[in-house]
Amino acid sequence: MSLSLCLTSLPSSSSSSPRSHSRIPLIKPRNPAIFPSRKLSKPQPIRSVQEQFDHQQPLTPTTPKWENMLSAAASLYPLYVTAGGVVACVKPSVFGWFVERSPNSYSLSLGLIMLSMGLTLKLKDFFNLFLERPFSILFGCLAQYTIMPTFGLIISKALGLSPSLTVGLILLACCPGGTASNVVTLIARGDVPLSIVMTICTTLGAVILTPLLTKILAGAYVPVNAAGLSISTLQVVVGPILLGSYMQSMFPEVVKMVTPFSPLFAVLAASLLAGRDIFSENVVRLKSSMVSASLASDASPFLKIQSLLSGELGLVMLSVLLLHFAGFFVGYIAAAIAGFGERQRRAISVEVGMQNSSLGVVLAASHFSSPLVALPPAMSALIMNIMGSCLGFCWRNINPEADGSKQG
């Protein structure tokens, strides 16, 4: 009875015949907005919601403002070195606590700098990139350990540097590429992945090549303990990098919290190393160089500066400037001759021209008795970063050529 009532209520059911009963499925609404047909299976409600969510995903992990501030603060490395140098020149006792604990304090500082570099390194990605582009990476590493050591020896002989300063300049020239080169390559619109892998490869190779080349080129001036240099390089450079990479793979959440602070910490530690050696430990020698400039009290400021720069300090600054200029220029020319594209030329040029001056400072302080050996690497921290930053900003305004460059 209930079935017949239901059928009579429908306008389409004019009779209660058995045939009308067989048309019960006709009561299904044909409204495609409620029951979509097969033709409308594409815009499913769940998929459309998911697509909207996916479109919003890039907005969620945007870099927080405080991380951008930390990154901007880390880019002021040359300013920190200059400020530290001025403070230490006016009041050398500011760095007394750091100098008293040398050389352990220097090694610890550099080890923490390298650890911060290792925290961002995935060995799997590194090996994959190396297998994709072996020729460009090997060429850059070869240029790093041939161009700079050669010009380090040539410049020191041409300027007639003292034995201690000669060893310091050669030691600087034999150091691997510095992490600041990656930032400068980014500014210069160069090949950043190539720069990063070159930095890692030259840093790992420094365990053997830095002591060996220093022994060959500087052994005629002062005794060089190549084995000691190698062990120190392994302890303060390679060990922390591998430890950081291991921590990155085992404790990713902890590393993710620490990583935003590591660049600023690294540049502050490097500035501390450089400032200590530029002015604090060598401030007596620098002031003695100023004596001749201040003897004539009636002399103009220009003549005083000229007298100051014409002494030992001026020679160190000139030698470091020429060394880095040769690295930038010859590195670029060599990459161009080898047929690399503009982005690769810039990356190789910057990588060759910018050294890990902090490593030079640590090795000089740990294995050489004269504090003057550490002066060229420490002075390099300021001069190199100013030169590299200027070059990077100049290149940034010049579009790199979109040509078929070598990648292998």
**Rg value:** 32 Å
Poorly predicted regions? 1-20, 39-60, 288-293
Q: Name the assembly state.
A: single chain
Separate helix tally = 21
**What does the average pLDDT come to?**
75
Give the strand content: under 5%
Given helix and strand content, the structural type is mainly alpha
Q: Give the overall silhouette.
A: globular
Number of strands: 0
What is the CA-CA span between the terminal residues? 84 Å
SSE string, helix = H, strand = E?
HHHHHHHHHHHHHHHHHHHHH
- The percent of residues in helical segments reads over 70%
Biggest sheet layout: none
Provide an overview of this structure:
There is one protein chain. The chain has 408 residues and is mainly alpha-helical. Helix content is 72%, strand content 0%. The longest helix is centred in the middle third of the chain and has 27 residues, at 192-218. The chain is globular and about 50 Å long. The termini are far apart. Mean pLDDT is 75; it is low at 1-20, 39-60 and 288-293.
Write the layout of secondary structure elements.
Elements: H1 2-8, H2 18-22, H3 45-56, H4 65-74, H5 77-90, H6 96-100, H7 104-118, H8 123-132, H9 134-159, H10 163-173, H11 180-187, H12 192-218, H13 226-250, H14 252-258, H15 262-280, H16 283-294, H17 301-309, H18 312-337, H19 342-353, H20 357-367, H21 375-396
